[in-house]
Amino acid sequence: MISIFSRAHHRPASVPFYDVGMNREEALEILYEFTKSEGLRKHALAVEACVTAYARKAGGDEEQWAVTALLHDFDWEIHPTLPDHPVKGEPLLAERGVSAEIRRAILSHANFTGVPRLSQLEKTLFACDELAGFITAVSYVKPHRSVFEVDAPSVRKKMKDKAFARSVNRQDILDGAQELGVNLDEHISFCVKAMQDRAEALGLKGGL
Ligand SMILES: [Fe+2]
Ligand SMILES: [Fe+2]
Questions:
Q1: pLDDT tens digits for 14-41?
Q2: How far is the CA of 17 from the centre of ligand 2 (A)?
Q3: Which of 150, 138, 144, 142 is CA-nearest to residue 194?
């Protein structure tokens, strides 16, 4: 049983117990515990890169947004079928002290849960999820497998290619940008830049 006290050592002593939230390192521990696939770990990190870039832009709580992004698919390997993911993962996160706000955001990234996306965090997570996956896929087919070779026009072009990265839902990318209220090309450029800034950790730096 993870209690608030066992998490407290990650925080400065001056922070009162009731104010302790999960930090990025703790979220990473949970992610790595449940997710063994390198690709899925990288997906979590890619979504985190995009979501936290938006946190800085929108004045969101960067750590909270990072935790949400890192954990949004944490249960995919143990719950490979919908709607088990993310519905059955949610109580596991609650047990580990993940806040209700974050758990709600995670539930809202899947349309079928019926949890509407209301907060800025929820809209941002949805807008970045499929797009981050798609930008990764586009990077992989570039000569140096690098995200530095990707830009908005090349992403838009690949979005029209139905045979390419078929598992990525194009409509979710369009809907996500619209719900967030951002221009699609600007959104793509913003996420590409966010992933370039973390290219090394994402394994997308290129250089053969
Ligand atoms: Fe998911
Ligand atoms: Fe995802």
A1: 444 444 589 999 999 999 999 999 999 9
A2: 31
A3: 150
CA 139 to chain CA centroid, nearest Å: 17
- Domain definitions of the chain by residue range: 22-202
Q: Helices in 9-99 by DSSP H: which ranges?
A: 24-34, 38-58, 62-71, 84-87, 89-95
**Cα 80 to averaged position of ligand 2 atoms, centre (Å):** 12
pTM above 0.85, yes or no: yes
Measured in Å, residue 14 CA sits from the centre of ligand 1 at: 36
Query: Ligand 2 centroid vs 142 CA: distance in angstroms?
Result: 22
CB 124 within 8 A of CB 105: no
Q: Compute the distance from residue 18 Cα to the ligand 1 centre, in Å.
A: 30
Ligand nearest to the CA of residue 130, numbered in listed order: 2
Considering the domain 22-202 in this protein, what is its CATH number? 1.10.3210
The ligand minimizing its distance to the Cα of 39 is 2
Give the Cα separation of 24 and 67 in Å (integer): 5
C-beta separation of 116 from 105 below 8 A: no
